[in-house]
């Protein structure tokens, strides 16, 4: 598995300090919103407000990935992957993704459209499992099918946002995801992270105001 060697340790330390400070500040700033969203989720469908899922992070280490629950309770057990193979989008790679998923609740669709479901990932960033910017965090099912080149995605911490998030073409194939993630790893700099964060704010704002 390839490791990130180009970035000096000092800059990686700065990236971690930046992640910690920003995620802590955002959690405090958004705490009223987080509480309101949690209550709405609990009142509109049975089950916990926060959904935890095992994902794969830096150098293959597994961690619990947090999001607001956007599906009905036990959706992953009610609709097993083997029963949904025909609905999985063709992404030319080991990615489990369904476009019109009947398991998503009404409030869940709103949270996904506005990316508000991603806010609990700030906890992951604060803990050090993730970064604000980085490759998408894969599930173990996907990693099991990686080839040697694709494992390079695990040479850095996964991020809440990345080049794939701010891409003009959002319906990317798996190979396009991989290409962008490796491009990010090879070209990484603090300035690049700041640019991606700025573009992410613009993209989220635009998507929240589209039909």
How many domain modules? Answer: 1
Number of helices: 8
Largest sheet: 2 strands, antiparallel
Global structural class: mainly alpha
In total, the number of strands is: 4
Q: What would you report as the Rg, rounded to the nearest angstrom? A: 17 Å
Shape: globular
Uncertain residue segments = 1-5, 86-90
Can you write the helix and strand succession as a string? HHEEHHHEHEHH
Mean pLDDT over the residues:
84
Rounded to the nearest angstrom, the distance between the terminal CA atoms is 42 Å
Largest sheet, spatial ordering of strands = 1-2
Strand content: 5-15%
Helix content: 40-55%
Can you walk through the features of this model?
The protein has 211 residues and is mostly helical. The chain has one domain. Helix content is 44%, strand content 9%. It contains 8 helices and 4 strands, in the order ααββαααβαβαα. The strands form 2 sheets. A two-stranded antiparallel ribbon has the order 1-2. α1 (9-29) packs across α5. The protein is globular, with a radius of gyration of 17 Å.
Note the main attributes of this structure.
two-stranded parallel sheet, about 10% strand, single chain, two-stranded antiparallel ribbon, about 45% helix, disordered N terminus, mainly alpha, 8 helices, about 210 residues
């Amino acid at each position: 598995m390839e490791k990130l060697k180009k970035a000096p340790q000092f800059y990686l330390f700065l990236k971690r300090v930046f992640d910690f400070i920003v995620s802590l500040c955002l959690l405090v700033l958004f705490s009223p919103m987080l509480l309101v969203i949690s209550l709405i989720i609990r009142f509109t469908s049975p089950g916990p407000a926060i959904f935890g899922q095992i994902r794969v992070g830096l150098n293959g280490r597994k961690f619990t990935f947090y999001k607001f629950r956007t599906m009905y309770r036990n959706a992953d057990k009610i609709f097993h992957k083997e029963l949904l193979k025909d609905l999985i989008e063709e992404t030319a790679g080991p990615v489990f993704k369904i476009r019109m998923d009947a398991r998503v609740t009404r409030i869940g669709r709103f949270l996904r459209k506005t990316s508000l479901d991603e806010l609990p990932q700030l906890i992951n960033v604060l803990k050090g499992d993730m970064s604000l910017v980085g490759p998408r965090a894969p599930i173990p099912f996907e990693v099991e099918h990686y080839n040697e080149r694709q494992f390079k995605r695990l040479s850095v911490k996964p991020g809440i946002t990345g080049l794939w998030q701010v891409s003009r073409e959002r319906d990317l194939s798996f190979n396009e995801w991989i290409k962008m993630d490796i491009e990010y790893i090879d070209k990484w700099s603090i300035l690049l992270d700041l640019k991606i964060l700025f573009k992410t704010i613009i993209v989220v704002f635009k998507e929240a105001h589209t039909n």
